[in-house]
Amino acid sequence: MSSLTEKDRPVVQLLLNAGTCPRCILRFCCVGSQTLYRHPFKDLMQDLQDFLRKTQEKEDTVCSDVVDPPCKRIRLEHTEEGPEDLNHNGALPQIPSGTDGNAAMESPAGKVCNVCLGILQEFCEADFVKKVCQKVNSADYQFTSFVFSVSLPPQLSVRERAAWLGVKQEMRNLGLSLARDDIVQLKEAYKWIIHPQLAEELGVPADGKSLFEVSVVFAHPETDEECRFLATACPDCFKPAKNKQSVFTRMAVMKALEKIKEEDFLKHFPCPPSSPKNLCEALEIQCNNGAVFVAGRYNKYSRNLPQTPWIIDGERKLESSVEELISEHLMAEFKADSFNFSSSGREDVDVRTLGNGRPFAIELVNPRRIHFTAEEMKRLQQAINNSSDKIQVRDLQLVTRSAIGRMKEGEEEKTKTYSALIWTDRAIQREDIALLDDIKELKLDQKTPLRVLHRRPLAVRCRVIHTMSSEYIDEHHFRLHLKTQAGTYIKEFVHGDFGRTKPNIGSLLNRTADILELDVESVDVDWPPTLDN
C-alpha cells in the first residue's frame, strides 16, 4: 500500500488489534487519496496485512545484519522518548503494546468497526447504494445533479476522540505526533466512497451546489449509554429540549468534548474504543429539492375576497383568498409540499386591485417538478385565470430567490395610485372639491389605524399624498384619484380615523367624509418583468 510509510505501522497495528476497519485506519494515517478508500473492503484489509508483514520482514532483515542486536523491548524501556527511539536504519521498533503483530494480521474482517460503527463498512456496499437510489427514484423528483448529506450518531465523535487519544499516546511513546486536524473526517471519507456510486446509479453528477439533496440519517442503539459519562462530567452541556428524544444531540456531545479534560476522558472511556455490540442503522433516507419561486401580478375583482385566508380564533370567515386561488394550481403542477406567499403590499378584503395588478411571489417548498417551459407557464397561467372570475394573473414566470428582493425593496420607495368613492354628510358643489386638485405633496401624520392596531405596533407614520384629482358625481358623492407614497392608509386619510390621521379629507373640506369604495389602480413596482402574454 504505497500511501502508507514506515511511520504509519504503529497506527495500523494498534488500530487493527483494536478492531478498527481498514478505511478508518487510512483516515488515522492521514491518507488523502480518495480512490484508495473506494477499493473493496477485503482488498484493503489484505493490503494492510501485507503492509504489516512486509515491514516486519524488512525489520527482521535489518536486525539480522546487526551483530548481537539488543532486545527491542529492553532498548525502548531504557531510552527516553524522542527521535532516538529509531534504530540505525531509521525504522521504528516493534510497538511495546503487549499486542502481537501476527494477531493484527489475523484481525477478523466481519467485526463492526470500533470507530465508525460500520458506516465505512456495510453502508459503502452496492446493496446500500441501490437502496438509497430506489428511495430517490420512487420519490419521483426532477433533478440534474445531487448533493449528498449524512447525519451520524453523536457517539461517533466520542469514539473518534478515543481512537485519536489512543493513537496519540502510542505515537508519543515513539517520539512522533498526530494532530487531530490531520485525520481525514469520517463524513469526508464516506462521501469520497459513496458519491461515485450514487452518481453512476442515478445517472447525474454529485455537485456541492445542487439544490437536490439526498440525505441519510444514521442512528445507533448505544448512543445514550456511551455518552452518559459526558453528562456526568459536563452536566451544563446537556439540557432537555423540545422535540428531542435524547439530550445527547450531536451539538451537545461536541460541546462536552471540547470542555472535558483529556485525563477525565481517559478515565471513563477506553482508548482506543472497544468493539460495539451493534451496527449502525440507516434510520431515514430522505430527498429534498430546493425551493422554486414563481412570480407574477394579480388583479382582484371581488370586494369579498381577502388576499390571504381570513381566519379568526380558528374560524374561517370567507371560503377562499387570492393566495389560495393562485397557489392551489401551482402546488398541483410543481408537486410541492407547501408554499409561502408574498406580495408588494396588500389590499383589504373589500378593495379591488385593477390596472396592471399587484406583484406577488410564491415560494414552492420541496417541489418534485422544477422544469417548466415558457409555454407550460402560459398554460398554467391560463388554468388559474379560467378557474375563477374573482382574480386574474399575468406575467407568470419562474424567478430566483434573490430577484424577489427587488419586489420588497420597492414597497416603501414606490408610489401607488388609488380611486376612492367618497360620501360627505353636507351637500357639495364642484367648486367645493376643486381645491383638492391643487394640493401637491401633502404630508400626513398617520397614527396606527384602530382597525389594524391588534396586529400592528402603535406608531405615528409620516406619509405623502403626491397628487389628487377629484371627479364630481352628485351633492353627496365624488370620486377621488390619488397618487400616494406606498404604505399610506387611504381609508383613514378619507374619514380621519377619529382624528388619528391629520390632515384628512374631512378636515380639508370642513365636513364629515367617509369612503364607500376603494380600488388600487396601480402599484408602481417595476417587477416582475412584463411578458408577452
Automatic annotation (TrEMBL):
Gene3D superfamilies attached to this UniProt entry: 1.10.10.2050, 3.30.70.2510, 3.30.70.3190
Span of domain Pus10 N-terminal eukaryotes: 113-287
Enzyme Commission number(s) of this protein: 5.4.99.25
Residue ranges of domain Pus10-like C-terminal in the record: 293-524
A molecular function (GO) term: metal ion binding
Pfam families named among the record's database cross-references: Pus10_C (PF21238), Pus10_N_euk (PF21237)
Subcellular location: Cytoplasm; Mitochondrion; Nucleus
Record-linked PANTHER family: TRNA PSEUDOURIDINE SYNTHASE PUS10 (PTHR21568)
NCBIfam families: pseudo_Pus10arc
This protein's name: tRNA pseudouridine synthase Pus10
Organism name: Pachyramphus minor
